[in-house]
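Lab meeting, item 3. Inverse folding demo.
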């Protein structure tokens, strides 16, 4: 019985730990991904309209091009990165993950939530280029959630 329990515990622990190749691939993607504050600003520039008071209305062509490149980079990287991150692993297993997103603490639910993305939604209100990673005080990833933007 002890042997079976030990085997099950070891199997569960190895399931949660990402493979070294996965960590290396995620680290490479995270190096290429701009930090969240830059993505937020780039998105504001790209989708700026006259009705958006917080977004700069006039940008040079070079600034607009750079912002578009940042947004496109996130659109390419975030969905790929999301597939590599495993629930049950630690946020610290993925070098650079915590530094790239925005972290919030939920006092009610007693967990952290890390947001990475570009605040763009599809026709269904889904954020295909966004993700929320919920993790506990020890850094263990509890859930990787979709972002659903309200219409």
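The presenter then showed the designed sequence:
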């Amino acid at each position: 019985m002890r042997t079976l329990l030990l085997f099950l515990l070891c199997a569960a622990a190895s399931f949660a730990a990402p493979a070294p190749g996965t960590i290396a691939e995620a680290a490479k993607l995270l190096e290429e991904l701009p930090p969240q504050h830059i993505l937020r600003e780039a998105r504001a520039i790209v989708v700026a309209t006259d009705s958006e008071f917080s977004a700069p209305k006039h940008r040079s062509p070079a600034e607009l091009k750079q912002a578009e490149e940042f947004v496109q980079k996130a659109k390419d990287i975030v969905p790929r990165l999301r597939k590599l991150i495993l629930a049950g692993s630690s946020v610290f297993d993925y070098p650079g993950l915590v530094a790239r997103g925005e972290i919030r603490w939920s006092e009610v639910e007693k967990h952290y939530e890390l947001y990475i993305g570009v605040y763009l939604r599809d026709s269904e209100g889904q954020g295909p280029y966004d993700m929320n990673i919920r993790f506990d005080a020890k850094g263990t990833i509890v859930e990787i959630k979709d972002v659903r933007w309200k219409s």
